[in-house]
Specification:
about 15% strand, Ubiquitin-like (UB roll), 2 domains
């Protein structure tokens, strides 16, 4: 496998052919903020928080789906990028109903962490206050659509790691929302195996374990990483990848 040499934030690094800019940056201990990205599942470039500047390209490129090329010169933390990222976080906060003080994931929320990192101490956009349901029909888990950021982690984990594909996206634009099976209550979704992978994948308090209260919901990403690694090893053994 050939090696690509590129520069990220004035640091000369090497990356494997076919590797993404995000992976190359992680290997070099260069932090790029993400929200929809989850190690072990496919990348979709949905949240746009990992946008970077690439010399010679007028567009900002999502690091999670941009493949490294020889001689690339990449910047990850310019004032322009910081402004874009802060705006994205503000848009997410204004679009949903994110009241941290009463959220089960308060203190364990990736959106909350990003807001702190971006210095978002207020939201300058108009709050949408959408009317969204809370589904607690499942015996073990609950889904609060008010806190959903449409990262699609739950969809990809359920499909690629569990093989159930209980979750999917419905609607378009502002009306986009997550559904289980054919828009049935989660507790009536016959495809759900109650494995909890989607709950662990959720970056906010949208998917939670029933019975937890404010600040108690923690996500165990390491369980998903272990599952993903085991799946990849099995595919290699079977010659599928």
């Amino acid at each position: 496998m050939s090696v690509k040499t590129l520069t990220i934030d004035n640091q000369l690094i090497s990356a494997r052919q076919g590797e993404t800019l995000l992976d190359a940056a992680k290997d070099a201990d260069i932090s790029i903020p993400t929200l929809c990205y989850l190690e072990g599942v496919s990348t979709v470039g949905a949240c746009r928080l990992c946008l970077v500047e690439v010399a010679g390209n007028r567009k900002l490129l999502p690091a999670c789906v941009t493949i490294v090329e020889e001689g690339m010169v990449v910047l990850t933390h310019t004032k322009r990028l910081q402004r874009y990222r802060r705006t994205i976080v503000e848009m997410l906060l204004a679009e949903g109903n994110h009241v941290c003080s009463v959220c089960v994931s308060n203190g364990h929320c990736e959106l909350q962490d990003l807001a702190v990192a971006m210095g978002v101490d207020h939201v300058g956009l108009t709050y949408q206050f959408p009317e969204r349901p809370v589904d607690i029909s499942h015996q073990r888990f609950g889904f609060d659509a008010n806190r959903c950021v449409l990262c699609t982690r739950c969809i990809r984990v359920c499909d690629e790691l569990e093989g159930a594909h209980t979750w999917d996206m419905a609607g378009r634009g502002h009306a986009s929302h997550i559904i289980s099976d054919l828009n049935q209550p989660w507790g009536e979704a016959s495809s759900c195996t109650a494995c909890g992978k989607c709950v662990n994948a959720c970056p906010t308090g949208a998917l939670f374990t029933r019975g937890v209260t404010v600040g108690e919901m923690q996500h165990h990403r390491e369980q998903l990483s272990i599952t993903a690694m085991a799946r990849q090893k099995r595919q290699r053994r079977l010659g599928q990848i």
